[in-house]
Amino acid sequence: MNDHPADLLALVSEARRLVADDRHIWFSSSETFRSRLVQRRGLLLGGAYSPQFLRDTTAMSWDVPWMVRLRHCRVVVCGQAAQEPLAAWLPLMEAVVASGESLLVVADVVSSELLNTFIVNAFKGSLRVCVVHSGRDHGGSAAPGAQFATPPATPEQLLRIDDVWVRRTATVCFPAKEEPLASAAALQNFAIIETAGENHEDQCDRLRFLMRELQRV
Fold it and tell me: What percent of the chain has pLDDT over 90?
């Protein structure tokens, strides 16, 4: 593949004219042979806590390398909760698994035991989960929902977001129209580059090019 595909660079330039910075530019695989730019409204948070959440081969992975997508996601924003003993988190983790949903943990400090447990579960596919930073230190929006000092026992206590995309430098939450977050003042514009290719391998190469282009900083 050309190291500098002209059509993708043109789309990146167009996207940069539309949004505040590169954290607002994302990409996905096109379902056709045509690459294009679309816009969505979402909430920006910080990036993944560990590269282990961004493995290409996990059960959570999708067709974009080095990114993870969580569907039907419950969001827990941690005050002191992320430093609570692992046992305090087990009821919520088991309830999320039973519901068939996924879990986004937003925390600026997390215990090593809890982080390692989430990583292992994500890698095995036993729990669709990712831990991300709040993003406030990087100018991101405030995390959605109330902060928890202790982990809630059931997912019903947590905000639900239809679609969450995570990479190393940023996380974006895309709420469905019927969800409470859909009308939040903190929502911003995001540019999505839908990337085509001659075949699946070429498409993956082009997606990796975009990842490198947008994560230089």
Answer: 69
